[in-house]
Design brief:
Chain lengths: 100, 442, 501
């Protein structure tokens, strides 16, 4: 059996990569995808711990996270479509109407 | 290094590499595709973690629905090119960092595993599961109900906790979870409060067992463990038969060529269960009989007499498909006049659902997690409403003017004009306008 | 598993939140069939739903039960939080009716989304499980993302919606990972069961303790994003400035209520005994203290240099989150936990009235195209609209914490609880930053009363906005003059788990 710690390390690496993506990439779509990567890595940790504790609570939490992520993606992409109609660009760097 | 660990490392590397490629790619579509591969890798990891349902949901919802939505929006907005290399030039260290992360992951996990540094904690032990079956033809009670003597009822206790208050012949209980170890089982008659059987069973963690109450003179519990392979298990609770054999009964009562063909299975001694038998897909007519009595069978012409000698197993099995589990207990039943006749009971061999199965998750979803379930429903409603509201363009969409409607046929006026030769129609005929701007779409 | 009966589920305790959720669904349906001219009817129906939920909250005020398979707690803490958020939502509806009409973005779904967000806050304050906190957090946030981007074709509004979305999604990913680690350490997501498992883990140490510490830290980070404390406040001013004013008003109050309710429940009910090593204080106390101090300092100092009213209120909102964090830090002391929770509740109530009043004034002076919210636009308001200016003056004084206003009551309780818990440096920082904040709040008053100039008269002071203003003013003054009212209501609040470790 692969030890749970190995899965946790893998999920930590993916989480860190997702965070880097959110902080460093300038394209909004890539930023959204990085957030999805972060949520996915959290799901992986949850399922690994669920197997460790032999408790299906972790898997159910994962189920809810997936559903919520789907709803979030829908709303986020809708906002992006609305912005794109107005500005013809989805570069976050160009969103600087409000400075200070 | 077992195959499992190698597999984990391979999938782990794929996951990390595709995540890195997703972050570094200059084309948004490529990033999305890399992320899809990443999700499929994670789904594979879920399969390794005893979460088959979640693995399929991951592929269907995450990779299948969410990423397709991403791709759709990317293509709709025409956003594949993400700005030629602007970000990489600002952060040239992104690529080496990601590669370092992947390599260090492989090295660290591999080294730790091979040297046993990671103290692999075994998963928590689950309780043992036991169910009870009453197959002992105990003498009927003296009291008479409805003109027939009734079966005696008993109270079944496990570790002094009442499992079944009216345990009668032919009853089977549900699986109960018991802490592993030595377990006291007590059977007490309801009528006179006398203990019929008290015995101790040793239960190990994670085991699944059926305890069959059998015997005519000496009644006791016999435990049948859940077999590892699928198939039909037959338990011999027939006191008069020291051994039980299986055969295929060919031909019916009216058939002169009736005979029993032995099935290639070992004989089952009293109080034991057979190894799992594979019931063939053509549904033969299986029976159980005492070995050495085959010749007598072919001479019997009376159906009742036949029933006394063989026990049909297959009448329980028409709905049994190949590779399904079942446990059939063959014992004797006491007739109202006190004599015995053979009988068989079928039990499903399935225990409480394994951890991670669809049934467990579904049950917990609707019972334990009712509140989050309802909240997620409202959340989805809010998301749907929100999406429509944000992208609704309402009054800003110019309504198509009447002039853009195509004419299907020549107007009547121009027909008249052509007939009469007047040019009146030309001025009145609605003309198709010049090309207008496209109404929608960016 | 056995199917629970209706009495097992104890739905009576969940009535305020559940009725609001059901009412919102009905409202969506009703809104479809209303003709366009009577769009405002949706808003008043939404108000009716809030009133029904408020009455139910009062009816179930002093209970102490769990419901819905131990995932829902109905106690005085949650009832009080429900009260606050219902008041906030009601005031927001009042501000928004005419605002949405005159800025051209009126749509019936706005109020349905607002009610759904309110329901999310209510469930968050009653949550007894990390899963419920997460889903309620999303239920609170997603309608807010949509509402922030509500003004179609307004680039600022859409941009603020986008930034809020990225920020919020980032935060919820942190929350899930933190919850995953806590689950890994304790084997459960139920807060009461986590509490039972924490003390043994703290004693043993090892991998479980590491998971628990990191997990708790990530949860605090995630909730910190939600309530906008330093260093997670980066985009908050942009979001507050770009979103429509009523949405900003609700965001500043509602997200805080939900965030602090969850923070208090997780830290005080579940992790009070999370000590590492021999220190009797839980590990998170120092972290929360530092964050609180930083927030108060940064929020107040940066607000000084703002010229836009909405941005200034955004930074002041950040600073006020710092004050409430003082109460959270004070709650680390088990003897003071209940008093600190009460202080946070009273502060949130006073902050709601005051801040919504201030945003109502902003809505009153804002022009239809969204401009007119600079501080210089308030010049001479005392001459053209004396009552409005007087109300704004009261709200500014309350935000500073001048006696006889609700803000003073709130700050008094907070400072008292932190001093009782021995957090003297933090209290000193709080007092000093309050003095600094006086500069920019009083500057508004000075601009309105003493400066000469022709600021535009307020176009947006319609009847509904005036009603909101009067209610906020009443709340501010009443809480300031009679603090005993708040004390009585919060008397039965207890957060400390009754299960002895």
């Amino acid at each position: 059996m692969v030890p749970t710690e190995a899965f946790v390390i893998l999920s930590m690496v993916l989480f860190a990569m997702g965070t880097l993506g959110v902080l460093l990439r300038r394209n909004a779509i890539i930023v959204f995808m990085s957030v999805e990567l972060m949520l996915n890595s959290a799901n992986l940790a949850l399922v690994a711990f669920s197997r460790q504790w032999q408790n299906a609570d972790g898997q159910l939490f994962t189920f809810f996270v997936m559903t919520v992520a789907a709803a979030e993606v829908a709303v986020g992409l809708a906002i992006m479509v609305a912005i794109f109609r107005t500005k013809q660009s989805i570069n976050i760097d160009e969103l600087h109407l409000m400075e200070g | 290094m077992t195959v499992e660990i190698l597999l984990f490392m391979a999938v782990g590397v794929v996951t990390i590499v595709t995540a890195a490629m997703m972050l570094l790619s200059q084309n948004a579509v490529h990033s999305a595709l890399f992320l899809i591969v990443n999700f499929i890798g994670v789904a594979f990891l879920y399969l390794m973690l005893e979460a088959p349902f979640l693995a399929m949901v991951q592929i269907a919802v995450y990779a299948g629905a969410i990423m397709v939505l991403f791709l759709f929006v990317i293509m709709l907005l025409g956003a594949e090119k993400t700005g030629a290399g602007a970000n990489l030039r600002r952060f040239p260290w992104l690529a080496p960092v990601a590669v370092t992360l992947a390599v260090s992951f492989i090295i660290s996990v591999g080294a730790a595993l091979t040297q046993g540094q990671i103290d692999a904690q075994a998963p928590e032990a689950r309780d043992a599961q036991v169910r009870f079956v009453h197959a002992a033809p105990i003498a009927m009670s003296e009291s008479v109900e409805g003109g027939l003597p009734a079966n005696r009822t008993f109270v079944l206790r496990v570790n002094d906790e009442v499992i079944d208050e009216s345990f009668v012949f032919g009853d089977e209980t549900e699986f109960v979870e018991v802490a592993p170890g030595l377990v006291n089982i007590g059977l007490r008659a309801t009528a006179d409060g006398q203990d019929l059987v008290t015995t101790t069973l040793e239960l190990t963690a994670n085991s699944v067992q059926t305890a069959v109450l059998a015997g005519e003179e000496a009644i006791s519990f016999y435990s049948v463990a859940q077999p590892d392979t699928a198939g039909l298990t037959v338990f011999n609770a027939y006191p008069a038969l020291p051994a039980l054999a299986f055969g295929d009964l060919k031909g019916e009562l009216f058939d002169d060529a009736r005979r029993i063909l032995p099935v290639g299975a070992d004989e089952v001694a009293f109080g034991t269960a057979s190894a799992p038998l594979q019931y063939p897909a053509d549904f033969p007519n299986w029976v159980a009989y005492a070995p050495g009595s085959i010749e007598d069978v072919s001479r019997i012409t009376d159906a009742a007499e036949l029933r006394d000698v063989v026990v049909r197993i297959s009448e329980f099995l028409p709905e049994m498909r190949y590779n399904e589990d079942a446990l059939v207990v063959i014992g004797t039943e006491r007739r109202p006049d006190g004599s015995l006749r053979p009988t068989a009971t079928r039990l499903d061999a399935a225990s409480l659902e394994p951890f991670g199965s669809v049934r467990t998750i579904g049950g917990m979803l609707f019972i334990d997690y009712l509140l989050p379930f309802q909240l997620v429903a409202m959340l989805l409603l809010a998301a749907m409403v929100g999406v429509i509201v944000i992208t609704y363009r309402g009054e800003h969409v110019p309504k198509p003017s009447r002039a853009t409607r195509r004419k299907v046929a020549r107007p009547l006026t121009s027909v008249i004009a052509s007939q009469t030769g007047s040019d009146l129609a030309e001025d009145d005929a609605p003309k198709l306008p010049e090309k207008t701007e496209p109404v929608a779409g960016d | 598993m056995t199917v629970p009966s209706w009495t097992d589920l104890n739905l009576g305790a969940t009535l305020p939140a559940v009725m609001l959720a059901i009412g919102t669904t009905l409202l969506l349906l009703v809104d479809v069939f209303l003709p366009k001219e009577r769009r405002n009817l949706t808003a008043w129906l939404a108000m009716g739903g809030l009133v029904v939920s408020f009455v139910l909250t009062l009816a179930t005020f002093n209970q102490q039960t769990t419901a819905l398979m131990d995932m829902f707690i109905g106690d005085t803490f949650s009832s009080f939080m429900n009260m606050i958020v219902l008041v906030a939502a009601a005031l927001t509806i009042l501000i928004s009716i005419d605002y949405m009409n005159r800025t051209g973005s009126a749509r019936g779904e706005f109020w349905s989304l607002l009610l759904l967000s309110t329901a999310g806050v209510m469930f968050m304050s009653s949550a007894n499980d990390l899963v419920v906190i997460f889903v309620a957090l999303e239920l609170l946030s997603i309608p807010l993302y949509v509402m922030a981007a509500f003004r179609s074709n307004n680039a600022k509004s859409e941009e603020s919606g986008m930034k809020y979305f990225v920020l919020g999604a980032f935060a919820s990913a942190f929350f899930v990972y933190g919850a995953a680690l806590v689950f890994g350490a304790t084997g459960t997501t139920n807060l009461t069961e986590i509490f039972a498992a924490v003390s043994s883990i703290s004693a043993e140490g090892g991998a479980s303790l590491a998971y628990l510490l990191v997990g708790a830290g990530l949860i605090v980070v995630a909730l910190g994003f939600k309530v906008a404390v330093v260093p997670f406040h980066m985009w908050t001013p942009d979001v507050y400035e770009g979103a429509p004013t009523p949405v900003t008003a609700f965001m500043s109050v509602g997200a805080k209520i939900g965030g602090f309710a969850a923070l208090l429940r997780v830290l005080v009910s579940a992790l009070p005994t999370l000590t590492a090593g021999q220190a009797p204080d839980p590990v998170w106390m120092n972290t929360v203290m530092i964050i609180s101090g930083l927030t108060m300092i940064v929020g107040n100092f940066v607000a000084v240099s703002q010229t836009n009213l909405k941005r200034m209120l955004a930074y002041s909102s950040i600073a006020h989150a710092g004050y409430i964090l003082m109460a959270v830090a004070a709650a680390a002391d088990p003897a003071q936990a209940d008093a600190a929770a009460k202080a946070a509740l009273v502060y949130l109530l006073s902050y709601t009235f005051t801040n919504l009043g201030a945003f109502a004034v902003v809505a009153a002076v804002e022009k239809n195209d969204g401009t007119g919210t600079d501080i210089t636009d308030l010049t001479g308001l005392a001459r053209s609209r004396p009552i409005l200016a007087a109300m704004m003056a009261v709200f500014m004084l309350s935000l500073t914490g001048i006696p006889l206003t609700a803000g003073f009551t709130g700050k008094w309780f907070i400072f008292q609880s932190s001093i009782d818990a021995g957090l003297f440096p933090l209290a000193i920082v709080g007092v000093l930053t309050s003095v600094v904040s006086a500069y920019y709040y009083v500057r508004i008053i000075v601009t309105m009363y003493l400066l000469d100039g022709a600021g535009d008269p307020a176009q947006g002071a319609t009847r509904a906005v005036n009603l909101a203003l009067y209610i906020s003013l009443a709340g501010t003054l009443v809480l300031g003059l009679f603090p005993i009212l708040a004390t009585n209501l919060t008397q039965a609040v207890t957060l400390v788990a009754s299960v002895a470790p």
